[in-house]
Amino acid sequence: MNESFSFFPESASEGALQFDRLSLALFGVCVLFSLGISLAILVFIARYWHSREVDRQFQPSRGMHWLVEITWMLGPLAILLGLFAWGAVVYIRAHRPPTDPVEVNVVAKQWMWKIAHPSGRREINTLHLPIGRPVRLTMISEDVIHSFFVPAFRVKQDVLPGRYSTLWFRATKPGRYHLFCAEYCGTEHSQMIGQVVVQQREEYAEWIAQGTEESLAQAGRRNLDSMGCLQCHGGIPGGQVGPPLTGLYGHRVTLSDGARVVADPEYLRRSILEPAAEVREGFEPKMPSYDGQIDPEQLLEIIAYLRSVADATGPLAGPGTLDTDSRSPGASSPVQQSPDESSPPGPTGEDDVEQPLDSPEAAESRSPPSTDAEESR
Amino acid sequence: MNYLNESTTLRSWFLTTDHKRIAILYLLSLTFFFFVGGMAAVLFRLELITPEGDLLSADSYNKLFSLHGIVMVWFFLIPSIPTVLGNFLIPLMIGARDLAFPRLNLLSWYIFMAGGLFTLTMIVAGGVDTGWTFYTPYSSTYANTFVILAATGIFISGFSSIATGLNFIVSIHVLRAPGLTWFRLPIFVWTIYATSLIMVLATPVLAVTLALVAVERILGVGIFDPSIGGDPLLFQHLFWFYSHPAVYIMILPGMGVISEVVPCFSRKRLYGYGFVAMATLAIASLGFLVWGHHMFVSGQSMYAGLLFSLLSMLVAVPSAVKVFNWTATLYKGTIFLKTPMLYALGFIGLFTFGGLTGICLATLAFDVHVHDTYFIIAHFHYIMVGGMLMAYLGGLHFWWPKITGRIYSEWWGRVSALVVFGGFNMTFFPQFILGILGNPRRYHTYPDEFQVFHVMSSLGATILGIGYLLPCCYLLWSLKFGRRASNDPWHATGLEWRTTSPPPKHNFLSQPTVSGPPYAYESPHPELVIGEGEPEPH
After folding, report:
1. Which chain B residues are Cβ-neighbours of A152 within 8 angstroms?
2. Residue A266's domain spans which residues?
3. Within a domain: A65
4. Phi and psi (nearest 5°) for A149?
5. pLDDT tens-digit profile of A295-328?
6. How the protein sits in the membrane (chain B) (predicted)?
7. ipTM, interface predicted TM-score of the complex
């Protein structure tokens, strides 16, 4: 906005800068070729106007003709492949999961965005986030398809019913930005809008801690208790009818058919709603379906809890004695995805060193003056 | 005695099996549907002048853009050139008396009108608000509007497409005149052939998809709605498997028209005939492999996104080949800027820009931001309206003397071409900027900062609307007052010009034969005058 003139909306994320550079290249190609063709047409019209006396003898040899045709096939092809590669690299980078993100849950419905932060603070149609830290959204719709679109970040992801979509970004500039629903969703589609508020770290820390009684993970634990999940999943010796819930999130598990899958949020959601579909090796398909008995927000809370005990071992402590650190604002979930997981170009513990873009250190050095480098660790 | 006046009863029109008369029936019905779809656009462009929703309610707005899309795509753009110009010209261009199945041809029109009747009933009953894309589960479970009626209309009209496509394919295979080999066919015939292949292969998928939506909506069988066990992305895959090739149904015939007009008004053979013909087939086949580029942010896998992006880039190559060959045709030509040529050059410019912005959209990371914004709207209007509609109007002007036997006012023709070109750019160029700024499509209200571009767009649309009304006036005027056309007013080369204007009922008085390649234009002598018509006999 401060620039003298720009066709771009404000850029407020790392991805936005990469997008803008790519766009300029694309616009350059558009302008170059359309001007080139238009100029050629105009010049030919002027030069070969029907009443002008000019040399119109034109008998290209067969070889010449083929050479011309091949040239204007291969030339554009090379440019196209270059653009493809550039776009693909930025796209792949945007799909690479960040390390140590703030995990935010988003539930979309006609016509609102319901957002829940790890601290337990909830908001509607507004998303507060800290500057300089990656934020990952786990999103699901309660009804039709919606799409989470923040022009200032140049990100968009459809939010589907019956399946989690994830999206992440790292904001680089404090301010308030548009949040739009980009997938047509019915009468009030154009009212399904809101704001993304990017705050400095301290400001965010203060905001996120307000008005919360229990963290998302605590709420998740409460749901587990009230639904009686731990009678089978408590990991208590003798009562292990179902797989234990500690050390599960983000780890690889083996199914009864021998397949190995990562226990990511989507797997956990399916296992609760359709337990018989993917049964863990060594267990009986005894669990009833919780489809219809648990709302999407509760399910996401349970996943937040499982994330908080991802590195724990042994039986779960009894109800009410939960101790997680997820209320502290800058706190991260302890999850590190296991090195052998197969999700798309996965950063693993070791890779992070070689991929400075995703490492928190890099974020610190790139983001605007940040006073709390320690907090993010 | 010609096809128009050999019999004038209503019955002789409604029961005709003459491909030329059926073309006229299509011309009239499509013009009607074009104005229905256009009126919807007028209303929502008016609404969009202000950021608030003041003229229309949200529901009316949603119904109007849905109506605009459904009517324009299925009842104007897809049938336009094939059923009007294709029907009229294919038998003439291949030197045949009629299409291979004249009665099936008439039946196609009745099926089309039956589909159109369902659509009109849907509109009168209260409309549909799903957008022309019918995304599930909104369309199959949540929408409270007339989805089934709308889907039925499209479902029925699909059979008309299939029958027409089949008729063209068979005719082009078996009815070519002696000596008219495949590589002597005008490019227009090639493009209609390729289009027909797509119609026959892709339309059934649309029929199946819409039927599945109806099954889910009426019977509650879980197909697309996850709450009853379906998968919403399955719908998108099926829908775009038809609807992306459908884009080529819309644009390929337009390319055919341009390939006829440009050589004629350059008095020169089409440069790279073989490459243009093969590029047509390449576009038609690659067009089936790129549907996933509509789904880069839908939640389909990242690897699918990569593959579809790459394949989409490849489609740009044959399209570029065509643009380059048309431009090269002008080189060392003898150029006349008559109305059809103005439309054709306008097509080249707008199609090129539309295609280039298509390359932007095929670039993964760029698409993420502009997907489902006005950028997409601008892009596909550059192709479908800037491209297809310019070609349709250009073709209509080019063959008008043949179809009606009359010459229209050249001055008004040129004015209309310029007004349409200017109005079009003013309407849709600002929408590219709106899209980059992040204005999502299908928004009844929008943030204030976007208003200036919406106002520009609505102003442009007014000019564009005038541009479309002009031809209606002077073309109709020419029917009564226009000069009579000679058999070949443009001194063009195709077989269609080797019969009277308008042609007799059975097209040719004796079987024409072909002994050389198409577009045998020679550098003309300096006094050549084209398109002037014959002086009135006094």
Report:
1. 438
2. 216-346
3. yes
4. -130, 120
5. 999 999 999 999 998 887 777 665 544 444 444 3
6. Multi-pass membrane protein
7. 0.92
